[in-house]
């Protein structure tokens, strides 16, 4: 079954290699004007300039005239918490009224509120809720995603979350990576016995997760009032002993050494990064294997300062963009909005933003060999826009749905 997509106004993301893009390389989004793509089975079989196309549309089982439309690789969302139970819009209204994080926590809100709801939900119910969210982000153009646990915070509930992620992997067409985030918050009963919770993570949760093959990565919320750098490091090393590489929450609210710790444990990615010192940026810029993942919709939703994307790119960091889809700080998994926000508020160029949300997003979940760019033998996960003047129109015209069709593994969605 071969499909020809022809007369594409401009085809973006034709990276010759699958290298992580850092610094000035992020501004280079290679493209072909007046292009074609041939899809065979689940993969991109060929692409090039229309004047080089040797076949006619009728030679194919299916063909589509994409005159006036752009084509891009699907979004690669490398940081989400989309498995959760219920929602927290009550907190959202409390915040509008002026309540602080501490006030909300005192009222039983925050991560622990989601943990309570999750403990009460059955695995099947959690799967149904999460599957809907997954379908929603796929319809918005996401073609690869990472999903974390972290609203379980007990052996039973963390396993429940991870089993749901495993079921999502089986049910969805897109590649999914799974991250164990037992170290998201200390459960109330461990508030005065934090070391016991770390022990529970290392001695009970990790061995079971590894035995069932439930996670690809290990994560911790390295932050004041949450997990210290020392605890984060121990959890990462314990995870690594089971083959789980670290992907960490660092520098969201404070710079407490999360970047240094993350680089030390050779994290695949260090995520959030709202609060970065010049030292943090320099250390991250020198880390060859670590992607800095910016989550601008969390900064937007929490009314925080945005991530210093310009400084980071100018310093030579490898930068990715992700949605942080979660019920507390980013109840949206819309990567089109994330890309627009990164241009509007973080001053990323449209080319930088698209690279950060595709190839570097793929690299932040080690999927750069199958997703994130237009290349032969990669998955045919493609976005076809409506007729638009050019790439910059996408973030400029933020909030409007500019995607006309979405292809996943060679099938139209
Ligand atoms: N910062 C830590 N965790 C989530 C938010 C968790 C929540 O409020 O539910 C995040 O990435 O933003
Ligand atoms: Zn997060």
UniProtKB/TrEMBL annotation:
Positions bound to Fe(3+): 79, 81, 249, 324
Q: Which residues form the Amidohydrolase-related domain?
A: 268-387
- Keyword terms: Cytoplasm, Histidine metabolism, Hydrolase, Iron, Metal-binding, Zinc
In Pfam terms, one family for this protein is Amidohydro_1
Q: Name one GO biological process term.
A: L-histidine catabolic process to glutamate and formamide
**Binding-site residues for Zn(2+), renumbered to this chain:** 79, 81, 249, 324
Database matches in Gene3D superfamilies: Metal-dependent hydrolases, Urease, subunit C, domain 1
The EC number(s) this enzyme carries: 3.5.2.7
Q: According to its UniProt record, in which pathway does this protein act? A: Amino-acid degradation; L-histidine degradation into L-glutamate; N-formimidoyl-L-glutamate from L-histidine: step 3/3
Q: Does the UniProt entry include the keyword NAD?
A: no
Q: What biological function has been recorded for the protein in this entry?
A: Catalyzes the hydrolytic cleavage of the carbon-nitrogen bond in imidazolone-5-propanoate to yield N-formimidoyl-L-glutamate. It is the third step in the universal histidine degradation pathway.
Q: What is this protein called?
A: Imidazolonepropionase
Q: Which organism is it from?
A: Flavisolibacter ginsenosidimutans
Q: Quick one: which gene encodes this?
A: hutI
